[in-house]
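Escalation from tier 1.

The customer reports that the assembly of three entities below gives different structure tokens on two consecutive runs. Tier 1 could not reproduce it. I'm attaching the input and our single run for tier 2 to review.
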Amino acid sequence: MRPPLTAIQQSTETGYEPTMECVVKTENLGRRFGRRWAVARVDLSVAAGERLLVIGPNGCGKTTLLRILATVLPPSQGRLELLGDAPSPRGRIGLMGHETGVYEDLSAAENLSVFARLGGADPANIPTLLATVGLDTRTDAVSSFSAGMRRRLALAHLLQAQPDLALLDEPFAQMDPGGIAQVSRSIQALPGAVIIASHQVHHAAPLCTRAVLMDEGQIRWTGPANQAEAAWRALHKERGDL
Amino acid sequence: MNIRWESWVGGLGLLMLIGAHYAGLFVAPPEAMMGDVGRILYAHVPTAWVGLLTYLVAFIAGVGALLTGKAGWDAMVEASVEVGLLLNVLLLVQGSLWAKPTWGVYWTWDPRLTTCAIMVVAFGVVLALRKQIDDPARRLTLSSVATIVAFVNVPIVYMSVKWWRTLHQNFSSPDTVSSSMVTPLRIAAFGMLFLATSFVVRRWRLSLAQLNAEFEAPDLPEPSAPLRVED
Amino acid sequence: MKTVLDVLWKDALIEWRARARTVALLSFAYTVLLLFAFAIGPDAAALRQHAGAYLWLGMLLCSTLLLDRTMRIEFEADAIQRLLLTPVSAPGLFFGKALSNTLQLWLVGLFSVPLVIVVCDASLVEHVGTLLLTIALGGAGLAAPGTLYSAMLARLSGRQLLLPLMLFPLVVPVIVAAVKTTSLVMLGDPMEQTDSWMLLLLCFNLVYWSLCGVLFGRVVEA
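Tier 1 run:
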């Protein structure tokens, strides 16, 4: 049995019921590009089923952190344990990043079908998935989609994968109000742990139990998600933005 | 003054080359069929042997770089490809100088000559690729892969004499070369080997210093102060 | 094996959806052949003599367009990242992709043969099966290193220049062997040299398909 971790103790303070299984554990995690540390000294723990919100100003390292946790970017230093140090965690991690990760020549259904075959998902769910994200009426190629529709398709991919760890980078970006509602519902329906990086705190915070604030690559605050907006204001006040 | 070991080796190699070339030009008998033109053998054959050997070193360094990800191996890839390329170009020039009086043309599209020329492009492109990539880790991976794949070409060059009918000489070895020519040839070969080793090691040191500066991690930023959040 | 077939199916679906690009590629092959014929002029003997060379030079030029295109679709919206997050293995991904490129090159080859016969007044003296095997092995020999290199260069801005620069020196043995064999089929092979050229093609394919399969993973992760 693992000893209680700081994060779980904090989670207990928010009223979240912890499980003992940790899907993400980082120790002094860092990533540099040339001589600049994009992420530094990050100690993070995320339990199974937990919803974590990551906020911070532009360029604070949110996207880099998510890409490291998705294993598409190797860390420059520190320790990273994913899904209990599983030997090949990749098939169990889903990333909805800035790039949509789609094939422009195929339709939405065909895109999902391709990845259903490769990822071992059930293709019978595709019509339901498309209906969930509001793309069931579109049969044309993705190249004709708007930016918001492509984001919806990326969300459908994530839902199809049913990952144990879902990483969403700005999931509400470019979405209309209907899309935002759909994203919120979908996030709530995800089975595994969820980490959301978002500027739209008022949309994301209600979906999460805990939040961290990053600034210049480091975590400066961690606490309940309902205090995230207060943390934002505190940072802006410190910087003299307000 | 602290003189590095590779400078001594290089100096020795140069002396051996001078000695061997003197012997080759003035002491050894002329080649039976080609006459004095055949004396280029003492420069051309060692250049070919050491050039191929240098590319082999580049291949091993490429494998090492991929397996370890260390700057030292990457520096050796750069150094050995550069020196190998130099020897390769020298080989083609020497071959052309020999070809004109022998075949009447500077160049012919003989398979061995062609593939030798191809090697210049194949390895030259590795250096061009390195210049295109800023990220040191990606540069290490991609240039190592390109070197490994380019090296697979080298045995094809080497075996082309066997596989195709060619105008070029058969493999030079002590069996095909008379004994009075073997000694200067062997000395020239070792001389070239020592000189090339010196070049590679010196270039490696230079490259390593540059790469270490790139690979070296800057200091981590100071831990930032926790944010005070009022409820 | 399933991965390879799934990747192949994916690429086939994409190519089918964008078949206008394939038509454009075949038109390019045709144009190249015509240009070679124009450059030589109305010298029927020269055209016949070098028909094999024109065929394979056309295939080579088409291959750079094809390879760049088939890899670009993976990187333009970062679908490759999504692929790498599936349980798909990198070698499986390579073999599927390279096989897809091979099939498309075979299509270009098969399309070019009747054109060459007509434009260069070539004929098939030896068995047509030999020519088909040459196209098969030659196309595969171009596709394997081409797939690796196009993945390597996909994120670089100079890729359109670097891809032919890196690929052409490497596939010279394939081109030489394929041109020789094709010429022997079209002009006759009294000395029975075809087998040795075929052996070279086969060895090249064995070496490069295995080597590139091993290295592909490192290249796409870089």
